[in-house]
Amino acid sequence: MTDTMLSESLASARERLAQALASAARPAESARLLAVSKTKPADMVRAAWELGQREFGENYVQEALEKQAELADLSGIVWHFIGPLQANKTRAVAEHFDWVHSVEREKIARRLNDQRPEALGPLQVCLQVNVSGEASKSGVAFAELEELAETVLSLPRLRLRGLMAIPAPAEDMARQREPLARLRLALEALRERFPEAPLDTLSMGMSDDLEAAVLEGATLVRLGTAIFGARDTSRR
Ligand SMILES: *Cc1c(COP(=O)(O)O)cnc(C)c1O
């Protein structure tokens, strides 16, 4: 993808988000774009940064560390870890990311807390919720969400910001909205249960369901393909 193409696709992603917010009668800045740069080269991230994009999502720890090293000169860049997180990768994530969206069990949360360097300030955390039941292996079940939230809130190096989900694909808007609405209601319930917690984030909405997610209150939409083009899946 050339820089001109990137400039056009980023502009249309911004326009699409702006339109979705307007259709949902929501304020213009009430959801942000997270540019998912997994499998894409550091140069492409740099080009997006030059176009004003600041928040980037990565799924693979090693790949992300290499890119971060190449991009260490970029100021104001914010790195989000959004992929499955194994216990042996928590240290790298705690040391090199600003956000983690995919916390789904207590052991991982405790390790991230213990390994977060004091100098970096707290790691911003979303809990990944299994909104599609048996159709998904990832994410904490709704029934166990409150307990996990309580644990994360007790960990001083973590700051619990909200919830994340990757729903099973659905054809029409009404079906897309169902699991996203469940996530929104779960966040509302947590806010009532923990009124002091800074629970302001719903990380949901991808290239196929952005409009549905914005209607259900998404504050951080994660777009990969729509910004950077199709990924070469043969590499993974
Ligand atoms: C890859 C990925 C995305 C982006 O997906 P696209 O379909 O390319 O927009 C968003 N969220 C997560 C968790 C991902 O792994």
TrEMBL record:
Q: Is the keyword Membrane assigned to this protein?
A: no
Return the PROSITE patterns for the record: UPF0001
The name on file for this protein is Pyridoxal phosphate homeostasis protein
Domain Alanine racemase N-terminal, residue spans: 20-231
PANTHER family for this protein = PROLINE SYNTHETASE CO-TRANSCRIBED BACTERIAL HOMOLOG PROTEIN (PTHR10146), PYRIDOXAL PHOSPHATE HOMEOSTASIS PROTEIN (PTHR10146:SF14)
By sequence similarity, the record places it as follows: Belongs to the pyridoxal phosphate-binding protein YggS/PROSC family.
Keyword list (alphabetical) reads:
Pyridoxal phosphate
Q: Which NCBIfam families match?
A: YggS family pyridoxal phosphate-dependent enzyme
**Which InterPro entries does the protein's record reference?**
Ala_racemase_N (IPR001608), PLP-binding_barrel (IPR029066), PyrdxlP_homeostasis (IPR011078)
Q: Could you tell me the superkingdom of the organism this chain comes from?
A: Bacteria
What this chain does, per the entry, is described as:
Pyridoxal 5'-phosphate (PLP)-binding protein, which is involved in PLP homeostasis.
PTM-bearing positions, type N6-(pyridoxal phosphate)lysine: K38
